[in-house]
Structure formats: C-alpha cells, structure tokens
Amino acid sequence: MLPSGRENPLLVVDIGNTTVTCAVFQQDAVIDMFGFSTDILAEPDRLPEAFHPLAGAGPAVRDAVLCSVVPAVSESVRDYLARSLGGEVLLVSSGMKLPFSLHYESPSSFGVDRIALCAAGRKLFPRQALIALDVGTAITIDVLGAEGVYLGGFIMPGLDLMAGALHERTAQLPLVSIHQPAELLGRSTVTCIRNGIFWGCIAQLDGLFVRISRELQEQGEGEPAMMVTGGNATAVAGLLAARPQLVEHAVAKGACYLYELNASRQ
After folding, report:
1. φ, ψ for residue 5 (rounded to 5)?
2. I need a surface site. Which of 93, 97, 110, 231 has the fewest CB within 10 A?
C-alpha cells in the first residue's frame, strides 16, 4: 500500500500506448477505476465521453495527476481535466520532486511511467535495492540502489510487439496471439512462435534478474527487492524463478505518491 495524507479523492490517469487506466484514490484505497482506448484521446470532442464515469465516482473529484507516455495528447487532457474538475492537475515528469535520485544521461527522456514505477518501488521498499519490472507494450527493468539512486535499466519489446515484428518483417509468418502455452515445445508454426516468444521472454527475464542481483551484491547493495507490474504481469510473475512481488497498478500508485510530493495544496 502507498499511504496518502490527503482527505480528498485524487484522479490518476495512466495514459499508455494502447490503453488509458483511470483510478480514483481515496487515501490509500482505489475507490473507482475505469479505462478506455488511448485512440479516443486523439479526438478532443470525445474527452467528455471518455471521462464520463467520473460522474459516478462517489465524492467529487477535483484534483488529478497524469502519467502519460503519449506526449501528443498530454496537454489537451490536462487542460480538459483542469477545466472540468476545477482543481490542480499535475503531469508526471523528471522535473518533479522525486523520492529517488535520477542519474540518467537525459532525464527528460526517461519515461514517465518508469518514473512513477520507481517512485512506487521506493515507497514500498524504502531501504532496499530494487529491481522493478513492467511487462506491457514494452518491457522495462529499472534498478534502484538501497540509498535511492537510480543505477540503470533495460527497455525491450513486449510480447505482442515481438509477435507483431515477426509477422511484419517476414513474408510467411502469421500474427500470433501470445499467452502462456500448455507445453514448452511448439509443434506448428503458430505454437512455435507463441512458445518461442513466451518462454524466451521468461528465460530472458530470469537471466537478467540473476545478473542484476549479482552485480548489486558485488556493489554492496545487498539482496534486492523485486516487483512486477503491467498488463502482462500476471502472465509472467508466477513463472519467474526470482518470484517478484506482483504490484497491480503500480504506475498509478506511484503517480499518486508523486502528486503528494508535488501538489501545491498539501
């Protein structure tokens, strides 16, 4: 849980490449949640339709925080929510007050979803090195030291991106939906693609966790905590040898925490 000191509800809007997840937080609890396709945000006249569920979200929501990896729609959504809610609307960015030290060559290029995930991880594991895994459209791994210093990470294609690339860049391979196969080995083109992508991803993550953990311990950071979130997190979490803690909606929770650190009205 990520405790909050605020009494009033807060809307967290997590704008991903494919979907938008909206969560209304009251203290540390999610009291309402809804979502829709990111494509809707490209049509400003559809914003009232997209955010209509807020009308039934219980106590009036006035404040919001946006965590958007789609810059083209960020400002229009922030402006709409500022007008319709009438409160303070913040955008997650590297320029915010952060609960960790972001050592990155170009901080402004560090994904805001990764910023929020690191914030959530720092709140959950404040005195421990951390490996934070997000399994979504892209797969990201971010690593924090025990003192809260960002040490580095990885960005890799997600399961569906890998399937799409095989289909688009070859003449004959079909587009295959990816889910956990019943067996290790495929016996058709479809199952060979599915099994190769899925089990290859598991093996890749297992190998990286081992290497990262070894490097952290060699640097005196101790045994790291491990957490996983994202749209495909439930599909992979229980199969990873490291058994990372599954944290649902970790990006939204981290964005909520960042709002608390940066809001002008405390």
Report:
1. -90, -5
2. 97
pTM (predicted TM-score): 0.90
* Domain ranges within the chain, ordered by starting residue: 10-91, 107-252
Binding residue per annotation — 111?
yes
Catalytic residue among 113, 142, 160, 206: 113
CATH topology of domain 107-252: Nucleotidyltransferase; domain 5 (3.30.420)
Q: What integer pLDDT is reported at residue 56 of this predicted model? A: 65
Reply yes or no on whether 45 is catalytic: no
- Is 142 annotated to bind ligand? no
Fold of 10-91: Nucleotidyltransferase; domain 5 (3.30.420)
Task: Judge whether residue 1 has pLDDT over 70.
Answer: no
Q: Tell me the C-alpha distance between 135 and 157, whole Å.
A: 9
With both helix axes pointing from N to C terminus, report the angle between 250-262 and 112-124 in degrees, rounded to the nearest 10. 90
8-59 per-position pLDDT tens digit: 899 999 998 888 999 999 877 888 899 999 999 989 899 999 998 887 655 6
Query: Known binder of ligand: residue 45?
Result: no
State yes or no: 140 annotated in a binding site: no
Q: Tell me how far apart the alpha carbons of residues 229 and 132 are, in angstroms, rounded to a whole number.
A: 8
Q: Output DSSP code: residue 45.
A: G
In the chain, the largest separation of any two C-alpha atoms, in whole Å, equals 60
Quick one: pLDDT at residue 265?
Answer: 63
- Find, among 258, 231, 240, the residue nearest to 38 by Cα: 231
8 is in an annotated binding site: no
Task: Please spell the DSSP secondary structure of 119-167, one letter per residue.
Answer: HHHHHHSTTS-EEEEEESSEEEEEEE-TTSBEEEEEEEE-HHHHHHHHH
Amino acid at 169: R
Helices (H) and strands (E) in the chain, counts: 7, 10
